[in-house]
Amino acid sequence: MVAATVMRLQTVTSREVALDEQAMLTVGSLHAGSKDNIIPDEAELTVNTRSFDDEQVRRRVLSAAERVIHAESQASAAPGEPEITPLAHFPPHRQRP
After folding, report:
1. Exposed e or buried b per residue across 20-45, where buried means at least 16 C-beta atoms within 10 angstroms of its C-beta
2. Where is 26: in which H helix or E strand?
3. For position 12, what pLDDT does the model report?
4. Is 64 exposed, middle or buried (0-12, 13-18, 19+ CB in 10 A)?
5. C-alpha to C-alpha distance for 65 and 80, rounded to whole angstroms
6. Across the chain, what does the average pLDDT equal?
7. What is the pLDDT of residues 81-96, one digit of tens each?
8. Do residues 50 and 28 touch, judged by C-beta distance below 8 A?
9. Where are the alpha helices (DSSP H) in the chain?
10. CA nearest 62: which of 17, 21, 28, 93?
11. Where is 28: in which H helix or E strand?
């Protein structure tokens, strides 16, 4: 399930952000399980998003990421809802001439 989620998250910016807008979504870390022959009960992803000049683009990317995470959880018949916890928030990066 987590591998499918990561694959889908990697398509968010190409599918949700127009060519003249700039955004980035990175899966920075993935932690799941402790043994090679046991399916883990949970997985933890750390996702970083950035946008340039436009808060609406950032909100669209975050919304798409949440939609993907919930959809993959539901498609995989996960026993519970995924927990999404924002860790930090930074303003959009503004290019200065």
Report:
1. ebbbebebeeeeeeeeeeeeeeeeeb
2. strand 23-32
3. 94
4. buried
5. 18
6. 88
7. 999 998 877 766 666 6
8. no
9. 2-9, 12-16, 55-75
10. 17
11. strand 23-32
Q: Which residues are CB-contacts of 4 (< 8 A; sequence separation ≥ 6)?
A: 72, 75, 76
Q: How far is CA 5 from CA 14, 92, 96, 97, in A?
A: 16, 25, 35, 38
pLDDT, average across residues 9-17: 92
Residues in the chain: 97
Residues 93, 50 contacting (CB under 8 angstroms): yes
Q: Token pair of 28, please? A: 């920075």
Q: For residue 50, give both structure tokens.
A: 């950035």
